[in-house]
Amino acid sequence: MLAILNFRIFYLALLFGFTHSTYSQSGHTITAGASNEECTKGAAAVNIEGLLPGDALTITWSTGQTGVFSIDNLEAGSYYVYVKLNSTDTTINLKVTKEPCKVTVFNHFTPNDDGYNDHWQIGNWEFYPKFELFVFNKWGQQVHKQKGTYTPWDGTWNGIHVPDGTYYYVFYYEGSHKNHLVKGDVAILR
Predict the structure, then answer these.
(1) CA neighbor of 120 nearest in space, from 52, 184, 34, 64
(2) Do 72 and 43 form a contact (C-beta atoms < 8 A)?
């Protein structure tokens, strides 16, 4: 039987990447949440505030894990956590959804051979083995390109340093699908 006093549910869109729900009962606050499967697998956690040394606590996850406050390596899907605290219990349902992994593109670099920030970095490209990357100068001339394997760009074209300035890139997640892309600008500062 669910006998929770002061039962309240709050749904917040995102808090530190977790969708979560909060439940309160006589001096205790139980918060459970899940992060979506994006570049890595999803995760879920439960937090219980107001625990006292004598409190009897049972935590059971739908994955079969017991006695732990968090689980990870979750595929997209529905999960639940059963929490029994002293004589009251509750089951909290959680959902992990599959989100596309976005590339992270740094917006500047300083290729001056000082060993710091000398190459343009793009994160999460490895999730897209068929990517295509093109970089253009302000006149629309291509000054850099890559396909399939990312090598951090050192700001050269045909072995010559390109001038300082703003350049424009197009990153196609999969070369054959030209409508799935990210584009923007990158500044070269020496």
Answers:
(1) 184
(2) yes
pLDDT digits (tens, 9 = 90+) for 70-106: 999 999 999 999 999 998 888 999 989 888 888 999 9
Q: pLDDT of 124-164, one tens digit each?
A: 999 999 999 999 999 999 999 999 999 999 999 999 999 99
Burial 51-86 (b: 16+ CB within 10 A, else e): eeeeeeeebbbbeeeeeeeebeebeeeebebebebe
Number of domains comprising the chain: 2
Q: Which of residues 37, 69, 96 is at a domain's end? A: 96
Q: Find the domain containing 128 and state its range.
A: 104-188
Residues 24 and 56 in one domain: yes
Of 71, 96, 121, which closes a domain? 96
Give the burial class of 169: count Cβ atoms within 10 A of its Cβ; 0-12 exposed, 13-18 middle, 19 or more buried. Answer: buried
Q: Do residues 78 and 58 share a domain?
A: yes
The reported pTM is 0.64
